[in-house]
């Protein structure tokens, strides 16, 4: 029996999934698979809530596929090794999947495509996780945009609205029920942290209240877009014209996606080379206090404690905590980027990297190095009644809460001098 395989990755849903739709439209005996990638899993803690979320999402998919006498074949290993075994075990005609634009993913897919070609197996990829791919929105000279506002303007100029796919042809699924693995079988345990359902009910108030952490006006959409439990097209289809501020956040996501694609060096290096000689202090004791939410600056500490306890952090607070680490403590942005990557449930390489470089002033669309957030006035402006702070710092306003580890005025002067001296002309 000849099979067509559909490879789930960052698209853990059955509806409005372009690659899956195309596979089922054009083929019979379509076998859906998912690979728990050891190249990624081996870097994670055993209680990583994101793996738990992936597993639960696949379990939901599998349950629905069972109603069509089908299932998802879950495998664990290094992708190329898995594909070598699949080619031995099955007669495969074509492989369908949706495109992933991160550096690791593009290398992985190129290797898999080359291997499959040796066996005359076609490898089809589709645009699914973005509205516009990295080469869809370019400057007139064909080069990528490196500043957000011109990119956004061109993005909106190209945007023609969205349409959702019809119901897939589930009758064309391969009919076989595979055993579904437990979380423990994959090598992971249940986590106390959980991914919240996304909620668009408050989008109408997003523009007005998005900077106030006590309002909790966010959509909690991040992990769902990251792992594709909902399509970007479905989300945009629900927005009204007045929701342009929220739409802008989705455009930021695509802006950073194309930056990472065109400039993969940003994973480990500054986008702007002129900042490569900054003399970072990189004090490990101060970094530990930042990680634990014990800097003596309430908005910074509340944000870090929210992150550590829940895997989430309010967007405005992310900016304040990141800027504090880079500017007040002069700790290299890669330290904070790696910490967020480990703990954020909505971690996405492109956005995390882009936002950290923005905070450090080293990125493509960077805040000027001399713009330094004042964590005291940020608190007064966005949490003046201390509702957010007291939620996450129970010992606030007691002797148990630490004094500030640096003086804002002195730290600001130190940062300005350090950047000025270290910058290349």
Structure overview:
It contains 19 helices and 5 strands. With 425 residues, the protein is an alpha/beta fold. The protein has 3 domains: 1-128, HUPs (Rossmann fold, 3-Layer(aba) Sandwich); 130-164 and 199-262, Serine Threonine Protein Phosphatase 5, Tetratricopeptide repeat (Alpha Horseshoe); 266-422, Orthogonal Bundle (DNA Cyclobutane Dipyrimidine Photolyase, subunit A, domain 3). Strands 3-2-1-4-5 form a 5-stranded parallel β-sheet, with helices on both faces. Strand 1 (2-8), helix 1 and strand 2 (30-37) form a beta-alpha-beta unit. Helix 6 packs across helix 11 and helix 15 packs antiparallel against helix 16. The longest helix is centred in the middle third of the chain and has 19 residues, at 244-262. The protein is globular and about 70 Å long. The protein starts with a strand and ends with a helix. The relative contact order is 0.12. The model has no long low-confidence stretch (mean pLDDT 97).
Give the oligomer, counting copies of the same chain as homo and different chains as hetero: single chain
- Kindly identify the CATH topology of the largest domain: DNA Cyclobutane Dipyrimidine Photolyase, subunit A, domain 3
**Strand arrangement, major sheet:** 3-2-1-4-5
| Helicity, as a percent range | 40-55%
């Amino acid at each position: 029996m000849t099979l067509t395989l559909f490879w789930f990755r960052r698209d853990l849903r059955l509806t409005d999934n372009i690659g899956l739709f195309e596979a089922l439209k054009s083929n019979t005996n379509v076998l859906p698979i998912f690979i728990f990638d050891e190249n990624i899993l081996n870097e994670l803690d055993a209680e990583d809530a994101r793996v738990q979320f992936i597993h639960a999402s696949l379990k939901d998919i599998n349950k629905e596929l069972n109603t069509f006498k089908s299932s998802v074949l879950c495998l664990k290993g290094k992708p190329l090794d898995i594909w070598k075994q699949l080619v031995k075990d099955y007669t495969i005609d074509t492989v369908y999947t949706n495109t992933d634009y991160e550096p690791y993913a593009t290398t992985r897919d190129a290797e898999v495509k080359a291997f499959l070609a040796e066996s005359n197996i076609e490898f089809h990829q589709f645009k699914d996780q973005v509205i516009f791919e990295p080469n869809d929105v370019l400057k007139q000279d064909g080069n990528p945009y490196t500043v957000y506002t011109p990119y956004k303007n061109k993005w909106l100029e190209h945007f023609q609205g969205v349409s959702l796919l019809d119901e897939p042809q589930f009758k064309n699924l391969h009919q076989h029920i595979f055993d579904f693995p437990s979380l423990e079988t994959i090598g992971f345990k249940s986590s106390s942290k959980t991914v919240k359902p996304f909620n668009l009910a408050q989008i109408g108030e997003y523009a007005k209240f998005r900077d106030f952490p006590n309002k909790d006006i966010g959509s909690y959409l991040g992990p769902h877009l990251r792992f594709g439990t909902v399509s970007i097209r479905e989300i945009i289809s629900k927005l009204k014209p007045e929701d342009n501020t929220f739409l802008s956040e989705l455009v930021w996501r695509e802006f950073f996606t194309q930056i990472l694609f065109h400039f993969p060096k940003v994973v480990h290096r500054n986008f702007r080379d002129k900042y490569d000689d900054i003399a970072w202090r990189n004090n490990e004791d101060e970094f530990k206090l930042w990680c634990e939410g014990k800097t003596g600056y309430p908005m910074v500490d509340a944000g870090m404690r929210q992150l550590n306890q829940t895997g989430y952090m309010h967007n405005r607070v992310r900016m304040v905590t990141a800027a504090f680490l880079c500017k007040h403590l002069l700790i290299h942005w890669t330290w904070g980027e790696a910490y967020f990557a480990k703990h954020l449930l909505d971690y996405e390489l492109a956005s995390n990297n882009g936002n950290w470089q923005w905070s450090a002033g080293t990125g493509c669309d960077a805040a000027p190095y001399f713009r330094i957030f004042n964590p005291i006035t940020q608190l007064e402006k966005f949490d003046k009644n201390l509702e957010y702070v007291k939620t996450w710092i129970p010992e606030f306003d007691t002797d148990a809460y630490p004094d500030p580890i640096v003086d804002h005025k002195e730290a600001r002067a130190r940062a300005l001098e350090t950047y000025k001296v270290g910058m290349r002309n």
